[in-house]
DNA sequence: TACCTAAACTAACGATTGTTAGTTTTTATT
DNA sequence: AATAAAAACTAACAATCGTTAGTTTAGGTA
């Protein structure tokens, strides 16, 4: 009999939901405790600080993206295929954790000890993304537009998925990833 | 001799910058006062509350977008041309107010009295956007993908502009708008 | 039954929050 | 120089913040 979710994991999960609704700074430990049905002081039997919760949410997600990107980079595929894999990566992670994605995107600046580490992961991710696009331009797979504008556009859409997925529970993840890839890569005009 | 900027406008401008860096909830009136070189209590000679500042930032921007969208809707242009006008609208507003755009995008939920009004403006904006895309599909101008996915993708990119523009001061607004339109409408693959 | 531990509780702490009241200083106008 | 208005100041308020200390309760194990 494995325990499905530890008490700490439960706290982190509920906290991520509240952080999504109001942001890290606006959520108090008393808010979180009330949502858990306990008193604020009781939270500290499971977590060491409010900051600890934020770190747990953000760093695990950031590392998940880093790991996914590394697999894509190592794969022997065309640049366009790599971009499709990245779309799939974002859809998969965002689908499984819409609440945590909100913290990753909007509350990262409230990280304390781990801020520098997070920024390095994010920067490396963007650099890898950019390299894939530049390779695609060199290979004549991708139009020779400004690669940074292309990355910005794609990444903006992918990073916003968490806002939109909760409204689209009827669409399957793989369908959405395919559809999104088409729009991002082939455009919308006939 | 016209006064270029009232003291209240100056406070709102500085507040928008701080809100962008740390978010509305994490910025204290003492932070803001220090940045202005005065004491917190002195702020209240010019503004009525912290909430007042947030409202001033967000509502004026939301109304600017609404006004721009209404002009686009009333214009007699093809659907693709209307979409290009919307791209231009976002680039123009975001360029002129990158800090305020952060509040509009991430701190709107901290609006109190004006929350409902903001949500109506935003919802109307998205509905108008959607209508333009659906008309384009009917006119055979736009590929018959899911219009909501198209809107989500375009709007995500446009709403993220404020994060990216400060790094690209060398690119002219009109060039960027053209470039972005091409990528969003024609895609990236050869 | 006796015991241990996990997890809750009450009470409180020092710090910080947005804001108000009342006062003084600065600035501009006559 | 006198005056009025604008804008700063000091001091403090009640409320709320994250967190700690010490205690009680509930559940499982010896």
CATH architecture of chain A: Orthogonal Bundle
Instruction: Report the end-to-end length of chain A measured between terminal Cα atoms.
Output: 56 Å
CATH superfamily placement of chain A:
Tetracycline Repressor, domain 2
Instruction: Please give the share of residues in helix of chain A.
Output: over 70%
Oligomer: homodimer
User: Which blocks of ≥5 consecutive residues of chain A have pLDDT under 50?
Assistant: none
CATH class of chain A, named Mainly Alpha
Number of helices of chain A: 10
Count of structural domains of chain A:
1
Which sequence of SSEs, written as H and E, runs from N to C of chain A? HHHHHHHHHH
Might you state the CATH topology name of chain A? Tetracycline Repressor, domain 2
Largest sheet of chain A: none
Q: What coarse outline of chain A follows from CA principal-axis ratios?
A: elongated
Tell me what the structure shows.
The structure is a homodimer of 190-residue chains. Chain A is an all-alpha fold. Chain A has a single domain (50-186), classed as Tetracycline Repressor, domain 2 (Orthogonal Bundle), CATH 1.10.357.10. Chain A is built from 10 helices and no strands. The first copy, chain A, has helices spanning 7-22, 29-36, 40-43, 50-74, 79-96, 98-106, 115-138, 147-159, 161-164, 173-186. In chain A, α1 crosses α4 (50-74), α1 (7-22) crosses α6 (98-106) and α7 packs across α8 (147-159). The longest helix of chain A has 25 residues, at 50-74. The model of chain A has no long low-confidence stretch (mean pLDDT 94). The interface between A and B is large, with 40 and 40 residues.
